[in-house]
Amino acid sequence: MGRKDSGTAGPSQPAYEVNARVSCKTTFDQQYHAADIIDRKQDGKTGKWRYYVHYLEFDKRLDEWVGQERVASIAKVASADGLHRVASGGGSGDLGPMAGDQKMTRRLKRQYTEIHHVPAALEELPPIDQHLEKEHQEKTKVKNIQTVELGRHEMDTWYYSPYPEPHASCQKLYICEYTLKYFRKKKTLLRHLAKCQLRHPPGDEIYRSPPPPANDPAYVGGAVTSPPISMFEVDGKKSKVYCQNLCLLSKLFLDHKTLYYDVDPFLFYVLCEKDAQGYHIVGYFSKEKNSAEGNNLACILTLPPYQRKGYGRFLIAFSYELSKKEGRVGSPERPLSDLGAVSYRSYWTREILEVLREHKASLSIKDISERTAIRTDDVVKTLESLSLIKYWKGDHIISVTQKIVEEHLKTIANQRNIEIDLNRLHWTPYRQEPPAKKPCHEALRLVPAPSDLTAREIMAQLSPRFGWQHKLWNLSAVEALLEEHRPEFVPMFQGFPKLVQRIDAAKYLVLEVFGGFYLDTYVECFREPSDTLDGFDMIVQEDYPGAAVNSGLIACMPKHPAWKHAFDLMVERKDHDPKDTGFSTGPQIVRDMLLRWHNVTVGSNGLLPPLLKHPDGRITRIYKLGTWCTPCGYADNDCHEQFMLQRVVGSVNLTEMVAYHRFTATWLGYRDGVRPQAKDTVRAMFCKECTEELKQCRAQQLTEAPS
């Protein structure tokens, strides 16, 4: 609930600047703690200051606005109260990770970090993520919404959430607990509820807790709960608005949840308590429909009023029961929040100890993983935290007796535990409908990059979910492909004065032979884009209207005849100024190729029509700028910066767009102070699910580049 400060400030109360470090009396324990001033505002009538502070010892969820009477210099508070040390980090009275003279070894530091959930420092993040993290911290440093009213509960929020304006500027939001629709005023919510027919989450009810025994209606225990609970499976593709609203709500209580408006790839499992009025949301977890990393959970949240009641552990247990039905092991997506890490460690500990007790501690790590569906590395970390495992001659050995297992179980015997009655779980694993058969579903990248390692790391970080394998193409491999398919073009290819021209020609060649998706190295995919090719033979997007087509992302079917015109055009323009690579080999080649092949001309506005149908039946889809890939032309730096900032906080609607070109460290020149070292290699990355025919072609025609 919101809190108000009391008391008045004296006339000599100093005004502190933003970023100043002060001592602040908190509203949650009435003690002074070291804090940084994040923001401030002054009352126009009284002249008093209010400060938004972050306490160095505590998580951001406790950041708050306080009156100036609660703020003082650290030195002043320390001298006034010698008994209470104003801490500057590490927890109240905690001297840091290792008090005293104990040496902080790497192993002890790692254990401390895991136990206390210390987030990675900015400089420890991959370079590609540091800029995004800085923007995230800057944009989300001040909570925009202070409280929300959901059903019968009013909750203080913990973090920033990118609700759209004008809702984002409200101190308090009113949310319908059935639809999760949000309102600025209570009377608007009441009008909505009077018309709202929904009394449970959309989707299928897949679990309902059992009723108490007939002879003991007040019984609660095991899987029997009071009130009864239900789980609903909600498909993000079928109930898009509900799931987007759920993500916005959860972001108020999760700091580093990556929030996208594209919820299609996810299933949401919503836990509710049931009473006569309907089903009241308690929490949820989400999971990808098809996770390349084998994760069984992407995000988990128990709303604050329902915490410490065993619901968090129930949600975790439910995700593993689904994994067991799928016949595979699973693990949550990282990173976990601090509360999430505690909940998972508690769940893993109990499950592993129960299995060890049942089998009298005579199991291997693999055995435990198969019985619990917990991934082996999570099993190992949990056993290490309990000191029940040893590393001997290159292998992990479980070292435990039945007595030790019982002693550990006694320490957690009083934890709240809601069991799952598997007889009341009615669920079948999600099965994605197989796509229509096509000669190729590939993701291809050809790029110059500073090094093989850098290129691989960039690709893995920007498009980690899609199961792509990396394959390197050197120029000799491309020339071999040319010799096979377009031998007449080899001399011109070898004579290009610029590397980017050879890369342009190489990607046209590979798209012509194999089809699929071409993406520049720094194209970030929001989702697996193959389905966008359904019903079309080629997809492109205009770059700057009337001038070119974005050649950083192209999709087409194999053996597409339009590419012949691309090679013809490059030959015709071989004597053109080599500085104008966009015209001689780049984006304008793709645009003019389509005009020539379809035998059309552009309108007076210079724009291409959205659909072009060739007499042979092939259809080309031409997206307008910002509707399929990057929303900006490559030179629109202000637009890029604005879009990246919106991406960080999740306020961009990514329903239609599938990818974004960062234009970072590419041949275009200096971006973020980085200029690439040109290498005479081009690189390709193929999707694992390419056809056997393509595998054979690749084995016959291409050679792996040297490492």
From TrEMBL:
GO molecular function: histone acetyltransferase activity; zinc ion binding
Principal location class: nucleus
Pfam families (alphabetical): Gly_transf_sug, MOZ_SAS, Tudor-knot, zf-MYST
Localization (cell): Nucleus
EC top class, as a word: transferase
PROSITE patterns in UniProt: MYST_HAT
Protein name: histone acetyltransferase
Domain MYST-type HAT, first and last residues per copy: 140-429
A GO cellular component annotation in the UniProt record: nucleus
Keyword field: Acetylation, Acyltransferase, Metal-binding, Nucleus, Transcription, Transcription regulation, Transferase, Zinc, Zinc-finger
Keyword Acetylation tagged: yes
Family: Belongs to the MYST (SAS/MOZ) family.
Active-site residue numbers: 333 (proton donor/acceptor)
Record EC number: 2.3.1.48
Biological process according to GO: regulation of DNA-templated transcription
